[in-house]
Amino acid sequence: MNNVLLIDFGSTYTKITAVDIDSETILGTARGITTVTTDIMDGLNQALEELFQKTGKLEFCKVLGCSSAAGGLKMVAVGLVPELTAEAAKRAALGAGAKILGVFGNELSEYEIEEITNLQPDIILLAGGTDGGNKEVILHNAKLLKDLGRDVPFVVAGNKSVTPTVVKILSETMSEVRHTENVMPKLNELNILPARETIREVFLKKIVEAKGLNRANNFVNKMVMPTPAAVLTAAELLSTGGPHEPGLGDLMVVDIGGATTDVYSIAKGEPTKTNVAVRGLPEPFAKRTVEGDLGMRYSAGALLKAAGAKLIAEYAEVSEDEVADYADRVSGDIEYLPQNELEEKVEGAMGRACTSVSADRHVGQLETVYTLFGSAFVQVGKDLTAVKTVVGTGGVIINNLKPEEILKGIMFEQSAPHILKPQEPEYFIDSDYILASMGLLGGEYPDLAVRIMKKYIMRRE
Amino acid sequence: MENKVKVILGVIGADCHAVGNKILNHAITAAGFEVANLGVLVPQEEFVNAAIETNAKAILVASLYGHGEIDCRGLRERCRETGIGDILLYVGGNLVVGKTDFAEVEKKFIDMGYDKVYAPGTLPDQVINDLKNDLVKRGLMSE
User: Fold this and answer.
1) What's the total number of domains in chain B?
2) Any idea where the B12-binding domain is (chain B) (predicted)?
3) Which terminus of chain A is more solvent-facing, meaning fewer CB atoms within 10 Å of its CB: N or C?
């Protein structure tokens, strides 16, 4: 038997998936409670016990892990112009699966250095200047950052002309300083993959150890990446396919949690209409955005502010007061689950609002410009109107009785035609919660991972 | 490659005349500059951001649809505000509507802080020559 075990060390649960790679089936999934304060092996053993109860005792030829435990990978991104290298640095960090604590641009001040110290990032990504472009700002920032007072791993991905100097300055006080290609080598040319890979390497080398995840090393062959990076990898695979297994083409993934909503899109997002000029920073083919104010529990209050109680009340067909009451209750008691029909309606409507607002922010926008020759359009961001496949994952969507209702928030709205959301989406649910696992499996067996995803991630009408 | 002088090129405002922009891009690149071409429909802010990030020595603004005066006003101030107040600013095209005396137009744009103002029909070679001369004068380029 050729069994592979895939582990996702989360902040509350350790989720495991056992796959038989010969028959290409999922043998079972299980979860245990993560206890970062004690030993992460506890949660894993608990999950294994549960799994073996279902499947009988299994032997594994390979064990792969990803992690979002202990708050995940927390990062600060620093660049020069907020819309250019600072934004590029942010996207590189998001693509690496990080949680962004802050994005800083221009010459840093002592106050900002203090702020960065207080944010306690796991890694700092330092960019600034195109290759051969501005040198002064990244040098200035390196000189200030070296006196953070904490030993923080750095990834330097700025103007290559001064990279050696920047590394030298930071290395005076920091023990781990890696450098890689510029996140923006030329103006408006996005190059985030090298930085993304370097961040993941640092994560594996330093962070896994710092967070006590290495205690699982005897059991796990390879701790591969942060969980969101595994989900991004899986989404990319499902879209583009493996070497011999075709994918589903352009797609989006929505993952709603208690605190945040993640949206992924795998698509070029080029204009679908004529007479459209594309502006702004080029978009990554595999793009991830995270909304810290859209969530079902910790962020329920913020969600109400962002989406408006009115919208949620309309979705649920209840009064605004009832929405506010429920949001109050669940943000106070994060373990709370809907107890009656009304609460179920509001819960679903909140999910739909998370989807809708996070998608609004993820997709591109079209602006009409009136010229002497009639109207023209300017597109900023990705045009995802033609995307058909929309996958829902994460506990909130999977455990809901009508997950497709939550995903409906992704749909293009006639009342806001400038927001380029999918016009004819088809909804798929990751009901066995295998996306992150398949991202891990895909590193070794891409075709197999694609086939399993196509088999287990089901379409909902 | 990185030793080439960088310049920012684009058509400002709500103007989408793309042909001249492509010709200028081609000619200035061929003359040995590294051109960051922002294309058409470019807001002032983007010219400035691009110049900061690339450490460009000049911003070359085109406007052909007659609203140049409104679109171009304030660019020098914006540069000063963001720390690149000394950058060379050139502008050219059909800057105003109708048959206005060009000397008048030129004065207006010089007063707005532009270093060079070009009349309709100017050839790229003249712009390139001026650019080289200005950069040599400032010690930003060797002869």
Assistant:
1) 1
2) 4-142
3) C
Searching chain B, which residue's CA lies closest to the CA of residue A375?
B14
Residue B122 belongs to some domain of the structure: yes
Q: Å from A167 to nearest chain B CA?
A: 20
B26 is catalytic: no
Per-residue pLDDT of chain B (143 residues; tens, 9 = 90+): 447 999 999 999 888 888 999 999 999 999 999 999 999 889 999 999 999 999 999 999 999 888 888 899 999 999 988 889 999 999 999 888 777 789 999 999 999 999 999 999 899 999 999 999 999 999 888 87
pTM of the model: 0.86
Is B67 labeled as catalytic in the residue annotation? no
Residues 6+ apart with CB under 8 A from A121: A74, A75, A76, A101, A102, A152
Probe site for chain A from B11, B47, B53 (most A CB atoms < 10 A): B53
DSSP-H helix ranges across chain B: 19-30, 44-54, 68-72, 75-81, 102-111, 124-137
Are A84 and B49 an interchain contact pair (Cβ–Cβ within 8 Å)? Answer: yes
**pLDDT tens column, A168-219:** 999 999 999 999 999 999 888 899 999 999 998 898 887 777 666 677 777 7
CA distance A94 to A287: 8
Chain A hits for B15, CB-CB cut-off 8 Å, are: 371
Q: Where in chain A is the domain with CATH 3.40.50.2300?
A: 74-207
Q: Are B41 and A134 within 8 A, CB to CB?
A: no
A410 DSSP assignment: G
Which ranges of A363-445 does DSSP label H, i.e. alpha helix?
A: 395-398, 403-407, 435-444
Q: Which of B17, B67, B130, B134 is catalytic?
A: B17
Euclidean distance between CA atoms B125 and B129, whole angstroms: 6
Q: What is the pLDDT of residue B1?
A: 42
- For chain A, the helix, strand and coil percentages under 3-state DSSP, each to the nearest 5: 40, 25, 40
Range of the domain at B126: 39-137
What gap in Å lies between CA A6 and CA A13, rounded to an integer?
Answer: 14
For residue B67, is it within any domain? yes
Query: CB-based contact (8 Å) between B5 and chain A?
Result: no
Query: Of A85, A134, A188, which has the smallest distance from its Cβ to B55's Cβ?
Result: A134
Domain A74-207 has CATH 3.40.50.720: no
Of A129, A184, A378, the CB nearest to B55: A129
The distance of A101 to chain B (nearest Cα, Å) reads 23
Beta bridge partners of B6: B34
- Position with higher pLDDT, A401 vs A360: A360
In a domain, B31, yes or no: no
In a domain, B17, yes or no: no
The CATH number for B122's domain is 3.40.50.280
For residue B42, list chain A residues with Cβ-Cβ distance below 8 A. 279
CATH 3.30.70.2860 assigned to A3-69+212-220: no
